[in-house]
Amino acid sequence: MSYQLRREEVLDGDRLKAMLEESPARAAQAILIAAGEGVVEAQALLGQILLDGQGIEQDQPLAVRWFGIAAQGGHLMARNMLGRCHEHGWGCAADAATAAGHYRLAAEQGLDWAMYNYANLLATGRGVAEDQAQALSLYRNAAELGHAKSMNLLGRYLEDGRVYPADPQAARDWYRRSALGGDFRGQFSYAAVLADEGNIEDALDWLRKALAGGNLNFLKVASQTLLNAAHPRIRELAADYAKRCAELTQP
Known about the structure:
By secondary structure, this protein is mostly helical. The chain has a domain at 1-74. Helices cover 75% and strands 0% of the residues. The protein contains 15 helices and no strands. The chain has helices spanning 7-11, 13-22, 24-36, 40-52, 60-72, 76-88, 96-108, 112-124, 132-144, 148-160, 168-180, 184-196, 200-213, 216-227, 232-249. Helix 8 (112-124) packs antiparallel against helix 9 and helix 11 crosses helix 12. It starts with 6 loop residues before the first helix and ends with a helix.
């Protein structure tokens, strides 16, 4: 074996990220060894690289097993990822109720991503009874922990006046914080507010940032929204969004 594992290399997230970028197979070897030795962080990471096929052959059912082992060891993100696997049917049967259970456990222990994912199920009534008030509470808790996606959704609740009376100024602030936090949906939401205020230049800047980071589903919806924008310069961006959609759908 050409690589001698040092546990601190696996436990150091920045070093592991660099290792995965430089040599995914070498990093996977290190993670495999540490996971077998009972290092919980490595067990969670092994689940992730098996799920993604990064540096190792993709094996989603095995990823679920390693997420489960890490979750039993108290790893909150592994618990959250178990929820993701059950929600989307990655390596197991899709089961929103089971997913909700995993998200809830991790959320109750303070994991922002689990709060966000559990709130999404509560907001849509998938796997659990719909509960907008609880969803809003979870989005707020995650947002206050710095979770950018939750910031955007908290802004939506505040703008729309769901659960509590509308608070446009608070919504604007959370959109801004989400945008600054790098969430492309938050950037789009903040751009809409700026455009309504007449600040077209800044709106365009945030729309371009959302375009650069957005996924296909978001870009499809956003391009149609931009076609109906009041300002012609913003409407022109719809073509750029549509072009990026075409690029992402190419084999």
